[in-house]
Write a structure and sequence with these properties.
CATH topology of the largest domain: TIM Barrel
Bound molecules: ligand C2E, calcium ion
Shape: rod-shaped
Largest sheet: 8 strands, mixed, barrel
Radius of gyration: 52 Å
Number of domains: 3
Strand content: 15-25%
Distance between the termini: 44 Å
Helix content: 40-55%
Oligomer: single chain
CATH superfamily of the largest domain: EAL domain
Length: 518
């Protein structure tokens, strides 16, 4: 039982550690997943916002360009002022250039000119209705990248409007710098890209990493790439921390729950509550008349999973766990419950042997408990005999007044397992004991080991001289019974008479040993 106790506490510990680890893993993963999901949602929102913003910008630009398209039919002188003021009032526009016969002839910034568009921006394809290019700078702002856009005039071959607009990623840089999961954005036109990584144009192959999100605008050949961090240190730390805290909490909780459910101490209380204990009765017969004079009550524990647990194990254990008092009170309760039926087969004055563990004997509540037990039995019917082992008397000299009190209250006392303890003979004189139960070890030896018989003989002589009534335990054979009867033992108990029986069986019990002995 004790090794079981330790293995149980190890089980509790292992179980709780496992539960803690499992919960830590689950919660950590859940937290990872949640923050991953949240970040994905933020990426989606940001890329959609960027696209919507840029698409509306370019659609507005297209609208204002459309109003400039008729100007290509006029001379630069006629339209220049108008062109300049339109450029001034268009957001981010550096310059509008009017193109006729593939030649730029008028600029909102510099006035009349005569440069073929192919020379100005070689990458632009004037045969397309709309084309774009990224420029490292423009003549006025040579170090500030710009977007060049070509809008072909659908009615005039080789004619159209060309414009350069500011491209400034600083706001995005500021935005993404504040969000630690965003690494940056890049604007891509053709093979060229401008990213928040640097303020110079780069080839798209020189962009760092793969984009988390990428989108191309509806009407213009411009792609936006969004770069993001797979995991941020903060998120990893938070998930680890969250997992750790949840794991510790779960481990502690399961330790608490498992200790309550599995701890053997509590198991005894649970077993009492769930009625797993029951009692059996073993008849004790008068050695001379071979008639039943009483019974010894023995406790049994039928555990739902471990089966029958021997009383030696659970009694000792209950004592170690300081649960012997509730256990004995439960025993009293079980006896009290059976008493009315016992009364039908046991005559008035029949002895009811009850084992009392030393732990209970010296408990504060002992006297009250005994009084209540006595009161729970049918009045004046049973003679309760408390079976107390030799060892308890040696240890407890104060037992003398207690024994006096018990006898005064009408209880009788038997020394149980006599002969197995240390030299208790001296205390036999000191205490008044009613019965002496000779341990079955002596009885067992009868007929097999001649040496023991003289010892038993001496014990019996001593008992007689002390005026004590003797009970022989563990009588298993007719030979043992015969020897004991010859030597004047008063009562016999053992398998030869009967094994301990549950109440139902005991009520129907018919002795058959008498016939054998005759
Ligand atoms: P015990 O008080 O000496 O009880 C007698 C034991 O001998 C019982 O074992 C009984 O079943 C067994 N026995 C009876 N006749 C024979 C026989 O002919 N041959 C053999 N080999 N054995 C026989 P059990 O019921 O296993 O109880 C063992 C011990 O546990 C008891 O020894 C007693 O010290 C303790 N115990 C049992 N029930 C209780 C109880 O309700 N309270 C307390 N405090 N102790 C109890
Ligand atoms: Ca006993
Ligand atoms: Ca005994």
């Amino acid at each position: 039982m004790f090794t079981r106790y330790f293995s149980t506490s190890r089980k509790v510990l292992t179980g709780s550690i496992l539960a803690g680890l499992l919960v830590a893993l689950l919660c950590g993963m859940l937290q990872f997943f949640l923050s991953y999901h949240k970040r994905e949602v933020r990426f989606d929102t940001l890329i959609v916002d960027l696209r919507v913003y840029m698409e509306s910008y370019f659609s507005e630009l297209k609208t204002s360009i459309d109003t400039l398209q008729p100007f290509i039919l006029d001379s630069c002188q006629e339209v220049r002022d108008e062109l300049t003021s339109r450029a001034a009032f268009s957001l981010n526009v550096r310059a509008f250039l009017l193109v006729k016969d593939n030649v730029a002839f008028c600029s909102s910034a510099t006035g009349a000119m005569n440069t073929p568009l192919a020379e100005l921006i070689p990458t632009l394809n004037v045969n397309k209705p709309i084309d774009m290019a990224l420029l490292p700078g423009t003549p006025m702002l040579p170090h500030n990248p710009a977007i060049a856009i070509w809008y072909q005039n659908p009615l005039v071959k080789g004619g159209g409007v060309f414009t350069s607009i500011n491209i400034n990623l600083t706001p995005y840089l500021l935005y993404t710098a504040r969000q630690d999961e965003f690494a940056g954005i890049a604007i891509i036109i053709g093979d060229t890209a401008l990213s928040t990584d640097s303020n110079r144009l780069v080839n798209i192959h020189d962009l760092h990493g793969t984009a988390t999100r990428s989108t191309t605008l509806k009407d213009v050949p411009l792609t936006i790439n969004l770069y993001g961090q797979a995991w941020t240190i903060d998120e990893i730390l938070f998930a680890l921390f969250f997992g750790l805290i949840s794991g510790i909490a779960a481990g502690t909780l399961s330790y608490y729950i498992l200790s309550i459910r599995l701890s053997p101490g509590k198991e005894i209380l649970t077993a009492i509550k769930q009625g797993q204990f029951y009692v059996v009765y073993q008849p004790v017969v008068d050695a001379a008349k071979l008639e039943m004079s009483g019974v010894e009550v023995l406790m049994r524990w039928k555990h739902p999973t471990m089966g029958e647990i021997p009383p030696d194990a659970f009694i000792n254990f209950a004592e170690a766990q300081k649960l012997i008092v509730p256990l004995t009170l439960h025993l009293f309760e079980l006896i009290g419950r059976d008493a009315p039926q016992l009364q039908t087969v046991l005559p008035a004055g029949a002895k009811l042997g009850v084992n009392i563990a030393p732990g209970h004997l010296h408990a504060d509540s002992f006297k009250d408990d005994m009084r209540q037990f006595g009161a729970s039995l049918p009045p004046d019917h049973f003679q309760v005999v408390l079976e107390i082992t030799e060892r308890d008397m040696i240890n407890q000299l104060e037992a003398a007044p207690l024994f006096e009190w018990l006898q005064h209250e009408g209880f009788e006392i038997a020394i149980d397992d006599f002969g197995t303890g240390h030299s208790a003979l001296i205390y036999l004189e000191r205490f008044t004991m009613d019965y002496l139960k000779i341990d079955r070890g002596f009885v067992n030896a009868i007929g097999t080991e001649t040496v023991t018989s003289p010892v038993l003989d001496a014990v019996l002589t001593l008992a007689r001289r002390l005026n004590m009534v003797t009970v022989a335990e563990g009588v298993e054979t007719p030979e043992q019974a015969a020897w004991l009867r010859e030597h004047g033992v008063n009562y016999l108990q053992g398998y030869w008479i009967s094994r301990p029986m549950p109440l139902g069986q005991f009520l129907k019990w018919q002795p058959d040993f008498v016939k054998d002995s005759e």
